[in-house]
Every structure is written in structure tokens, then in C-alpha cells.
Amino acid sequence: MMWIDTHCHLDAAEFDPDRVAVHGAALEKGVGTIVVPAVEAANFQAVTEVCRLHPGCFPAYGIHPMYVAKARESDLEELRAVLADGKAVAVGEIGLDFFVEDGDVARQEGFFAEQLKIARDLDLPVLLHLRRAVDTVLKHLRRTQVRGGIAHAFNGSRQQAEEFIKLDFKLGFGGAMTWSRATRLRQLAATLPLSAIVLETDAPDIPPEFIGRARNSPAYLPRIAETLAELRGLSLAAVAEATSENAQSVLSRLPA
């Protein structure tokens, strides 16, 4: 079975001591494709290098909402330039984060809106961050229509999920789904159309229940997928095939 991790920060400092081993362990588990999203202009080059050095890793570039406070307007032009070379599979990680109450909402929305325009202009899908901001993200997507993408770490309502699906988005499920107390999220994973679901780790973040609070890793993706298989009453092979096809359909630059 081959797996696609649609969201893994393999460039993160947490992997500096053993990145080669982490990537090798993922390959051994069948995770042959990993999407590595940037979070700010300062790490565009690091993402590029990780993807150059590690087979099966593909870059996405964007300015994360938690980084817009220190971003410059010129970073948007740098983003457009790095995306224009044709190697990126998506614009991301972009979006909104209203979890931190003292965040500059207007600045977040401004950068998000501009990045959606870049994605539209370049006909690229987007990787969305939407913590406590789902409805506002949807508002922007209706205003600036892009060619779909992935709602990363989806944790919204059924109705919100259906709105993303209408806009040609897939929903990213990962370690959070494995926690037994995540009853609402697990219900969504069990009942949403399988054609709308992709898998992700968000490594080194969002660890699955079976590792507690330890560093997450792309090698854990197949075991995370076991939860989805159990919730839906499917074989692991069926989950691998469906989620990989879903990822390739929305991120069309990924290899078949």
C-alpha cells in the first residue's frame, strides 16, 4: 500500500537532528508522497531544499496566518515568484487563525485574501489553515474562487464540511481523529463521503493518541489511517487507495 501525507512540516527544526531517518522511516511504512507546506517567506528555501533532497516530497508555499504579523508586503511578491516556477503543488499553508484572541484579524484577512488571488491567478489549489475561523475562511473562498484544495486539520461542523465539498475541497484528517474523546470529529470521519477525505499528519504537530504528546512523524500515517478504516468499516487497503486518489485529484501536480 502507498500513502500520501498531504500536510507534513518536514522542514521544521524538530526534525533537524534526524530528518533523513524520519523520511526513511516514512518510506518504509509506504508513505511515498509527502506534501511539505511553507509557513513564511523565510522558510521557502528550506522547504525547497527538503523537497530537493528527499524523494517523494513536494513543496507548497504560503504565509501562515500565525506568521503574518512579521510578514512584509514584499513577501507576497516573493510568494508569487516562487510559485511561478511550476514546482509547487499548492499555495499553503494559508488561511486564518482566530484562536489567539489578540491576533490582528484585519491583517490576517488581508494576507489571506491576497494569497487567494495569487492562487486564482496561477490556477493552484490551496492548503487551508482555519482554526476557529471556518465561516470566515468560507466567506473569503466564495469571494475569491480558487480551484479547490484541502481544509487542513478539519474540525468544523457537518454543514461546514459540506460547504467545503461544494467548493471542490477535500478535508484533511489526521492524528486528532485517533483520540477517543474526539467524538464529533470521529463521527465526521465515519460519515462524510469517503471521496472528500485526505490523510495528513501535520508532523511534528497534532500527535495521534497512540504516541501521546510525543513528536509526530509521517511514518505514523498508516496507523492513523487504521482509525479511519475502523470507523468506516473498510479495509486498510481501501482507505489507502481512496485517500491517495483523493489527494491526487485535488493536488493535480502530485505524481499518479
Oligomer: single chain
CATH class: Alpha Beta
**Radius of gyration of CA atoms, rounded to a whole number:** 17 Å
Structural class: alpha/beta
What is the number of independent domains? 1
Give the helix tally.
9
Could you name the ranges where pLDDT drops below 50 across 5 or more consecutive residues?
Answer: none
Compute the average pLDDT: 97
Span between N and C termini? 14 Å
Largest beta sheet: strand ordering: 1-2-3-4-5-6-7-8
Q: Hey, roughly how much beta strand do the residues contain?
A: 15-25%
CATH architecture, by name, is: Alpha-Beta Barrel
Shape: globular
Helix percentage range: 40-55%
Which sequence of SSEs, written as H and E, runs from N to C? EHEHEHEHEHEHEHEHH
Task: Provide the CATH topology.
Answer: TIM Barrel
Number of strands: 8
Describe what this molecule looks like in 3D.
This protein has 256 residues and is α/β, with parallel strands linked by helices. It has a single domain (3-250), classed as TIM Barrel. The chain has 9 helices and 8 strands. The chain has helices spanning 19-28, 44-53, 73-83, 105-122, 134-143, 158-166, 183-191, 221-232, 236-250, and strands at 3-5, 31-37, 57-61, 90-97, 126-131, 149-151, 169-173, 197-199. It has an 8-stranded parallel β-sheet, sandwiched between helices. β7 (169-173), α7 (183-191) and β8 form a beta-alpha-beta unit. α3 (73-83) runs parallel beside α4 (105-122) and α8 packs across α9 (236-250). It is globular. The model has no long low-confidence stretch (mean pLDDT 97).
